[in-house]
From TrEMBL:
Entries under InterPro entries matching the protein: DNA_bind_recomb_sf, DNA_bind_recombinase_dom, Recombinase_CS, Resolv_N, Resolvase-like_N_sf, SSR_resolvase, Zn_ribbon_recom_dom
Superkingdom of the source species: Bacteria
Recorded coiled-coil stretches: 366-422
Catalytic residues of the enzyme: S16
Residue span(s) of domain Resolvase/invertase-type recombinase catalytic: 8-156
SUPFAM superfamilies attached to this UniProt entry: Resolvase-like (SSF53041)
Domain Recombinase as annotated: residue spans: 163-284
TM region(s), chain numbering: none
Keyword annotations of the record: Coiled coil, DNA integration, DNA recombination, DNA-binding
Protein name: Recombinase family protein
Length: 483
C-alpha cells in the first residue's frame, strides 16, 4: 500500500556528459519546462523529481531511473513526464519495455516537446514511431562514426589516447624512449626471466617506476601490455564491443588490423613467444611465490596430483613433499618424501638432463615442435586470407578504393609466401638444436640462481625449461621439458 494519500506526478530529467555544455538541454531548463507544463494543466498533486546527471541513454542502468521505476512498481506514480523522448532512452527496445511497464501499472507517459500522452492510442502510436526514428538516427550516426574511424585507421592514424611507450605526433604514433625501455624490460622479464604478471608489477612498483599518469602497476596493466599488438607496430582497431553493459572482446574476424602502421618497440619473435606463453594455463601465484624449489612443479607419480609441502617428525620437524590427493581426499596411497632429498635428486637430474636425452626423446621432441610450428604457420595463413576477405567486403560496400584492395591482396600473398617458406624450413635438426642450446645455456644458470636469487625469481627461471617434475619413487624423478 502506498505511503502517500494521492499518487504523485514524476518528472524525469537527464543529461549526458557531452550534452551538459550544449544550450537547451541543461537539467535546470528541463525542470523548468516540466513544472510549467504541470501548472498550465492545473495539476495540484505532489511533483517528485528524478535527476540523472551525466548518464548516457544507451542503457537503462541509471540510479535516478532505477529509483523511479521502483516507485512506479510501488504504485506511487500516476504520470511520468519528460521534455523529450530521448531523455528516457534512445533504444526502441528499451522504450517499448518501459511503455509496457507503465501500462501495467497504469502510469501515463507524457513528452512535452513531442506533444503526446500514452493514455491515448494515438499517443502510443506516435511514441513508437518516434522511438523507431530516434534509434534509426542513432544507428546512422554510429555508422558514420565507424566509417570515419575505419578510414583513419587504414591510413595509420591513431584514434584514441596514445599507449604507454608512445606519443602522438599529428595523430601518428612515435616512440617515446624513456617509456619504450620499460616496455622492453617488461617483455624481457616475462620471456627471459619467467616472471608472471603479478611479479613484474610488484618489481616495477618496488623500484618506483610509474605506469600511465603516474599510477602504480597492476597485474591487469602488465597483462594488457603484453597482449597489445601495438608494440609490434600493428594497429588493431574495433577489438572491443563497448555497446554492451560489460565490455567484451570481438571475434578476430571483425578486427581492423594494419601491420607495420607505426614503429615497433618489440620484435615479432619475442611477441610470438609471449602470446604462446600467455595462452598456456597460468600457474597459481601461491605456487610461484612458495619458498620451496618444487612448489607448484612437483606431481605425484601414482595419481598425477600436485605434491605440496607438509611437515613431519617430532620433536625435530622436517619438510616433506606430500601428495595433495592423499592429504585432502585420501584417494592416493603415495607416501611422503623428505623435501631435502627430493630437491637434491632434482638438482642432480638437471645436471644429467642433457645426457639423458636419447634418440627416442629426440624424435618425440622434434615431432612436437614440428606440429606446433605447422599449426602456427597455418593459423597465420588463415588470418591473412580472412583479412583480405574483409577488405573485399569493404571495397564492395564502397568504404575503400581499388588500390587499397590491391595493396591488401599483395600483403596477403606476401604473408602466404613467407609462411610457405617457413613450412619448408620446419626441419627436425633445427628444432632439436634449439632445445639443446636452451638446456646447455640455462642449466648452470638455474642451479646457481637458487643460491643467489630470491626464490620467486629462481623458480621463474626454472619454469623456462621445466614444465613439471613427476616423482615416481626414491631417486626416480621424471623431468618434463617446457618446449
Amino acid at each position: 500500500m502506498s505511503d502517500f494519500p494521492l499518487k504523485r506526478i514524476a518528472i524525469y530529467c537527464r543529461v549526458s556528459t557531452d550534452e551538459q555544455a550544449k544550450e537547451g538541454v541543461s537539467l535546470e531548463e528541463q525542470r523548468t519546462r516540466l513544472q510549467a507544463y504541470c501548472r498550465a494543466m492545473g495539476w495540484t498533486v505532489e511533483i517528485v523529481e528524478f535527476i540523472d546527471d551525466g548518464y548516457s541513454a544507451k542503457n537503462l542502468n541509471r540510479p535516478a531511473l532505477n529509483s523511479l521505476l521502483q516507485q512506479i512498481k510501488n504504485g506511487d506514480i500516476a504520470k511520468l513526464m519528460v521534455t523529450k523522448l530521448d531523455r528516457l532512452s534512445r533504444r526502441l527496445l528499451d522504450l517499448l519495455q518501459l511503455i509496457e511497464l507503465f501500462h501495467q501499472y497504469s502510469v501515463s507517459f507524457i513528452s512535452t516537446s513531442e506533444s503526446f500522452d500514452t493514455d491515448t492510442p494515438s499517443g502510443r502510436l506516435t511514441l513508437q514511431v518516434l522511438g523507431a526514428v530516434a534509434e534509426f538516427e542513432r544507428e546512422r550516426i554510429r555508422e558514420r562514426v565507424f566509417d570515419n574511424m575505419l578510414h583513419a585507421a587504414k591510413t595509420g592514424k591513431w584514434l584514441t589516447q596514445h599507449p604507454y611507450g608512445y606519443r602522438l605526433d599529428e595523430k601518428k604514433l612515435v616512440i617515446f624512449e624513456p617509456e619504450a625501455e620499460i616496455v622492453k624490460r617488461i617483455f624481457h622479464m616475462f620471456v627471459n626471466e619467467g616472471l608472471g604478471y603479478y611479479s613484474i608489477a610488484k618489481k616495477l612498483n618496488e623500484e618506483g617506476i610509474p605506469s600511465r599518469q603516474n599510477k602504480e602497476w597492476s597485474l591487469r596493466s602488465v597483462k594488457l601490455m603484453l597482449a597489445n599488438p601495438v608494440y609490434i607496430g600493428t594497429l588493431a582497431w574495433n577489438r572491443i564491443d563497448s555497446s554492451k553493459k560489460k565490455r567484451e572482446s570481438k571475434d578476430e574476424n571483425e578486427w581492423i588490423v594494419i601491420p607495420n602502421a607505426h614503429p615497433a618497440i618489440i620484435d615479432q619473435d619475442t611477441w610470438d613467444i609471449v602470446q604462446e606463453r600467455m595462452n598456456k594455463p597460468q600457474v597459481p601465484s601461491r605456487a610461484k611465490t612458495s619458498p620451496h624449489i618444487l612448489g607448484g612443479l612437483l606431481k605425484c607419480g601414482k595419481c598425477g596430483a600436485s605434491m605440496s609441502i607438509d611437515w613431519s617428525g617430532w620433536p625435530k620437524r622436517h619438510r616433506v613433499y606430500r601428495c595433495s590427493a592423499y592429504k585432502n581426499k585420501g584417494t592416493c596411497d603415495s607416501k611422503p618424501y623428505r623435501a631435502d632429498d627430493v630437491e637434491t635428486w632434482f638438482k642432480k637430474g638437471i645436471m644429467e638432463l642433457i645426457d639423458s636425452i636419447d634418440t627416442t626423446c629426440h624424435e618425440v621432441t622434434i615431432q612436437k615442435v614440428q606440429k606446433e610450428n605447422k599449426e602456427k604457420i597455418e593459423q597465420k595463413m588463415k588470418h591473412a586470407k580472412e583479412r583480405y576477405s574483409r577488405q573485399v567486403e569493404a571495397y564492395t560496400a564502397g568504404l575503400i578504393e581499388l588500390n587499397d584492395l590491391a595493396k591488401e591482396k599483395e600483403k596477403m600473398e606476401q604473408s602466404i609466401l613467407e609462411a610457405q617458406k617457413r613450412m619448408e624450413t620446419n626441419d627436425s635438426s633445427h628444432a632439436y638444436s634449439e632445445l639443446e642450446t636452451k638446456l646447455n645455456t640455462q642449466e648452470m644458470t638455474i642451479l646457481e640462481s637458487f643460491a643467489i636469487l630470491p626464490i620467486e625469481e629462481a623458480k621463474a627461471r626454472l619454469r623456462l625449461i621445466v614444465d613439471k617434475v613427476v616423482l615416481h619413487g626414491e631417486e626416480n624423478l621424471e623431468l618434463v621439458i617446457a618446449i
